[in-house]
């Protein structure tokens, strides 16, 4: 059902009425998507400018207005997301569909899929725009990033709703992520004014020596689906702040989130081609970015296996590479710990965001004296967690992002049983009123050699390992090829300091969940978790700039 008429009621953009469909006010997501999660209509599509939105979607009559019409679900798409190349919105050579993992009947978006040729266009547009953007003043860059951050924050509820529908995070988590993305852009607006250098004394008389940082060039940014607004923000914002041009490829599972971010960035005062969005498969679009000789820097977040391929391909042509590739993160619980606090840390770290975080606590290493008590309390807490639709109030855990990931999780659980890990709780497929990728959080008692204790599982699956004492717990924590983050729950300052010093990871947490970071400090790990310069905070400039040393003597 197409809607041809939309009336704005006043200059403050009071919520308009869609008179063809309902008498209820409809909340506006500017420049594209129209959403009203309270009424029976949760999205309405029309044509606005270049954005084609064509669909009405309804679930049930409104609790506020029981007489509101109930519209049947439709297979038509709710949003049409296109590439953004050289300052223009472009259709793709093919298209794909983004499906709501909370309700598989709902198509969130139809999105454009690029091929190598369109990716080439985006890269060349960025290369052509680089000189102009790299020579702009820091103030202009700061103003553009601040504008982007302000709009994201103003629209965090709308962006969060889109994120929850497309990726499956609970609505509070999704809105918080949208806000975080806005804050990241604002932080790097300030950092754009701080990209500097230093002057040092020369060993020779009359010689002046300075060290400056300059932008690298074209940055290819490849991001995952689990944080579809925050991770792109913490790559795009520092890249632009430092004067680079960007080609951004989001995951195919979350194209609408990538498009929504690009739609905001596209209205900032950036020269055409400075920022480009191309969507499509990793095999085609991602590979084209990795191999392109005009892409000077590649920042990738995803699986270790894919990251290794990115490194080999990009390093072969001497491109600058930054990789974030996950972890098998331990949370150590010592006998002197506050057990309630430790259980809170375990639940938040292992199961919130459906366990789909590279910082998730998938290994719970517990000192023997409190092992059984900890497991009993954790099992009780897990039983109280509510799994359901991402938009449903009170839900703790939303769906797994897609069917393939759900199947991987269930296969890992089956392997744990086959290897003799003791099942404690959960790990079952769940039925809910809407058909989605639902599973209960899973807990096993494992041995260090079990695959559940060694391989990353991107879902709400954790295992408990028994430790004899603090030193044994530390040894178990370090017994992994990964090294992203590690946590410890203890009331001993001595144990906490010893753990922080000797844990072979990039980030440590004491009496805190492993999943939970600040955006103004470095993020990254060691070993198989990370490669290259750190992301986030002031350290981000190390990747997005190159150092130049200058010598000068007066004639």
Explain this structure to me?
With 555 residues, this protein is an alpha/beta fold. The chain has three domains: 1-80, no CATH class; 84-90 and 112-325 and 532-549, 3-Layer(aba) Sandwich (Aldehyde Dehydrogenase, Chain A, domain 1), CATH 3.40.605.10; 329-520, Aldehyde Dehydrogenase, Chain A, domain 2, CATH 3.40.309. The chain is 33% helix and 21% strand. It has 14 helices and 27 strands. A seven-stranded mixed beta sheet has the order 19-20-21-18-17-23-24, with helices on both faces. The chain has a six-stranded mixed beta sheet with strand order 14-13-12-15-16-26, with helices on both faces. A three-stranded mixed beta sheet has the order 5-9-8. Strand 8 and strand 9 (107-113) form a beta hairpin. Helix 2 (138-154) runs antiparallel to helix 4 (171-191), helix 3 (156-167) crosses helix 4 (171-191) and helix 4 runs parallel beside helix 5. The longest helix has 21 residues, at 171-191.
Topology:
Layout: E1 41-44, E2 47-48, E3 51-52, E4 56-58, E5 80-81, E6 83-85, E7 88-90, E8 94-99, E9 107-113, H1 116-134, H2 138-154, H3 156-167, H4 171-191, E10 198-201, E11 207-215, E12 218-222, H5 230-241, E13 245-249, H6 255-265, E14 275-277, H7 282-291, E15 297-301, H8 304-315, E16 320-324, E17 329-333, H9 339-351, E18 361-367, H10 368-383, H11 403-418, E19 422-425, E20 442-445, E21 461-467, H12 470-478, E22 482-483, E23 485-489, H13 493-502, E24 507-510, E25 526-527, E26 530-531, H14 541-544, E27 545-553
Parallel strand pairs: 5-9, 12-13, 12-15, 13-14, 15-16, 17-18, 17-23, 18-21, 20-21, 23-24
Antiparallel strand pairs: 1-4, 2-3, 6-7, 8-9, 10-11, 11-27, 16-26, 19-20, 22-25
Helix pairs in contact: 1-7, 2-4, 3-4, 4-5, 9-10
């Amino acid at each position: 059902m197409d809607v041809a008429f939309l009336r704005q009621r006043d200059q403050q953009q009071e919520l308009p009425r869609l008179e063809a469909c309902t008498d209820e006010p409809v909340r506006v997501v500017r420049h594209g998507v129209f959403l009203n999660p309270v009424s029976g209509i949760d999205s309405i599509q029309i044509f606005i400018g270049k954005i084609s939105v064509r669909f009405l979607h309804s679930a049930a009559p409104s609790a506020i207005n029981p007489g509101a019409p109930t519209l049947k679900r439709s297979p038509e798409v709710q949003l049409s997301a296109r590439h953004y190349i050289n300052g223009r919105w472009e259709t793709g050579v093919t298209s794909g569909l983004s499906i709501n993992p909370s309700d598989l009947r709902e198509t969130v978006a139809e999105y454009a899929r690029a091929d190598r040729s369109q990716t080439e266009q985006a890269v060349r547009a960025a290369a052509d725009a680089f000189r102009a953007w790299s020579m702009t003043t820091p103030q202009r860059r700061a103003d553009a990033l601040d504008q982007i951050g302000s709009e994201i924050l103003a629209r965090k509820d709308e962006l969060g709703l889109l994120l929850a529908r497309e990726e499956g995070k609970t609505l509070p988590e999704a809105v918080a992520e949208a806000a975080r993305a806005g804050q990241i852009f604002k932080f790097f607006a300030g950092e754009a004014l701080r990209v500097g250098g230093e002057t040092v004394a020369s060993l020779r008389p009359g010689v002046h020596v300075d060290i400056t940082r300059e932008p690298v060039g074209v940055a290819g940014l490849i991001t995952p689906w689990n944080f579809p607004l925050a991770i792109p923000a913490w790559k795009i914002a520092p890249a632009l702040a430092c004067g680079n041009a960007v080609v951004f490829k989001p995951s195919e599972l979350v194209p609408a989130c990538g498009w929504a971010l690009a739609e905001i960035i596209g209205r900032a005062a950036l020269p055409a081609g400075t920022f480009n969005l191309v969507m499509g498969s990793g095999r085609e679009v991602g590979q084209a970015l990795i191999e392109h000789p005009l892409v000077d820097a590649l920042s990738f977040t995803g699986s270790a296996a894919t990251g290794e391929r990115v490194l080999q391909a990009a390093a072969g042509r001497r491109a600058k590479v930054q990789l974030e590739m996950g972890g098998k993160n331990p949370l150590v619980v010592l006998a002197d710990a506050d057990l309630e606090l430790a259980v809170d840390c375990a639940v938040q770290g292992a199961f919130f965001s459906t366990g789909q975080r590279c910082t998730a606590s998938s290994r719970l290493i517990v000192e023997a004296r409190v092992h059984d008590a900890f497991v009993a309390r954790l099992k009780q807490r897990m039983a109280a967690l509510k799994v359901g639709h991402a938009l449903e109030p009170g839900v703790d855990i939303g769906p797994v992002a897609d069917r393939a990931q759900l199947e991987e999780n269930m296969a890992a659980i089956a392997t744990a049983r086959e290897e003799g890990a003791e099942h404690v709780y959960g790990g079952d497929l769940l039925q809910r009123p809407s058909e989605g990728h639902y599973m209960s959080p899973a807990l096993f008692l494992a041995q260090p050699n079990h695959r559940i204790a060694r391989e990353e599982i991107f879902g709400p699956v954790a295992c408990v390992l028994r430790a004899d004492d603090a030193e044994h717990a530390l040894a178990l924590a370090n017994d992994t090829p990964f090294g992203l983050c590690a946590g410890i729950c203890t009331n001993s300052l001595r144990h906490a300091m010893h753990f922080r010093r000797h844990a072979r990871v990039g980030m440590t947490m004491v009496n805190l969940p492993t999943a939970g970071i600040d955006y103004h400090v470095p993020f990254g790990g060691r070993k198989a978790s990370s490669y290259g310069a750190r992301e986030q905070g002031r350290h981000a400039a190390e990747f997005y700039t190159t150092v130049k040393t200058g010598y000068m003597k007066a004639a």
